[in-house]
Amino acid sequence: MGGKKLRVVHFLNQFFGQIGSEEKATTGFVVKEGPVGPGLALQKELGDRGDIVATVICGDDYFSANLDKNAEEGLKLVASYQPDLFFAGPAFAGGRYGVACGAMCKAVSAELGIFVITGMYEENPGVDLYRKYAFICKAPNIARGMPEVLRNMVRLAFRLISGEKEMSILTRENLPKPEAYNYFSRNLLRNEYCEKTIAERAVEKLVAKLQGKPFESEVIPPIFERVMPPAPIKDLSKCEIALVSDGGLVPKGNPGRLATRSNLKWGAYDIEALFREYEVTHAGYFNDHVLERPDRLVPFDVMRDLVKEGIVGKLHRTFFSTSGNCTVSKRCGEMGEEMGAEIKKRETIAAAILTST
Amino acid sequence: MVGVNRIVQGRAVTNPVGDPTLTKEQEKELRREYVLKALELLQKEVDGPTVLTLEE
After folding, report:
1. In sequence order, what E strands does A199-348 have?
2. pTM for the predicted model, two decimal places
3. How many domains are there within chain A?
């Protein structure tokens, strides 16, 4: 770090920025030179290693009315001070404030490439929206915890700055651990050097598990969001149903070029034509049973019977197909949304049956 | 569970709605049972992820 003092800019809402409480929430951007309100305590923590050169303040209602535009406006103000480091809040449980802090951090980090640090209570909506883009230190739900949160935010900032020289953007060896610095994980993968091979570590953890001893998994399972169940179908005999599958059944020649593994695409195919000439593009299961009779994957024969018998109103003529084998869950979610949008766009489809291998 | 709220447990990974060890007729009958189970679930009110097997 040498002798050069860090230039710091701090973002606050109208309340902490000492403009006024709720009745002043519609106030637009105000810039004050030097530290304001909690900035005084922040300055104390920074000591002689950094100076809060400016405090950017904005009303909660004003900011939340147009997030993107206001983050852009705030960013210009921040950039004019050429900071080395950016702090926002902490916002504690304040919803609008937390979202504003997150949006400011995201914009500043993306444009200026400096470290951005804020603090929030775990239930603040800003946490889930912006944890990927900013270091969000954990904070209690009331402002009484201000000194501890600011101390931790500065501790993390100094750690980030000091590791910067050796920090590799690709491998992130020096990325501080979320649990060591009490911030919400950004879901970034970091390289770490270990004495033991992965096989040894896996066996050790398994043995610990079998013995009922504590162990720490190195794998973080994806968090699946809760989806509200759609309302049930009322009259099946009047309803049009679409068939969907992630088992890789595609027309012969695989015109959509779906991959057999880590596939990122999906296709929409005429189901009648597909069942005449097909192939399977999926390297995650033994395909022979499906190649022999594709109804084992996509129940076309039975659905046709049920329509003929009047039990089901109609079978949608397009079959929606993808190949789900080691595809990252994020892309799976996107493909589901894309298919869902297409199904909705067609207006006549009341439900979908998705068969999965 | 992957955000799906209505699930019927299939036969096997290689043949979710079929069974190559059965005769063609038996297999189609089995497939019909799976589809009817799925349709039953589509007509049912659920308040979260619900998994049914053919026996339920």
Report:
1. 240-245, 249-251, 266-270, 278-280, 314-322
2. 0.59
3. 3
